[in-house]
Amino acid sequence: MKSNENDIKTAAPESPIQNKVGSIFVPVRDIEKSREWYCTLLGIDPESCSIVNGHLCPLPMQGTGVILDTMPMWGGEEPGGAPHITTPAFMLLTNDLEASYNYAKVTGVNLVTDIEHEHWFVIKDPDGNLLMVCKE
């Protein structure tokens, strides 16, 4: 029986890339102002969030990390800064959606949506990044 080239399968090597998210980068223009805003939103002491190399601020998170970054290599030094996130790329969890929505409201957070489907709402950070807050 004659072998056809299409019948021969080569095994793909096993991927060395883990199916695990390490950290999420959020593009910001003013690292100090953003650190204050995110720390207020998340109830984190800003003193526990060091600014590294003048442009990175890892936030102490439970689970996947969040790093605020002025992104000098990705357009951060351009007049408009690095492009902001126009579609929520990740969600922040809450056990009390109503309290979280009210907290965002009283602290002056820009609310993009009301609570939707009794499960989530979207906010905007000072740089225009959209973030989702979702019931756990």
Automatic annotation (TrEMBL):
Q: Which residues form the VOC domain?
A: 20-136
**Keyword terms:** Dioxygenase, Oxidoreductase
InterPro entries, from UniProt? Glyas_Bleomycin-R_OHBP_Dase, Glyas_Fos-R_dOase_dom, VOC_core
Q: Which SUPFAM superfamilies match?
A: Glyoxalase/Bleomycin resistance protein/Dihydroxybiphenyl dioxygenase
Source organism per entry reads Paenibacillus uliginis N3/975
Keyword S-adenosyl-L-methionine applies:
no
- Point out the signal peptide segment: none
- The domain of life is Bacteria
A molecular function annotated in GO for this UniProt entry is: dioxygenase activity
Q: Which PROSITE patterns does the record match to this protein? A: VOC
Name of this chain's protein: Catechol 2,3-dioxygenase
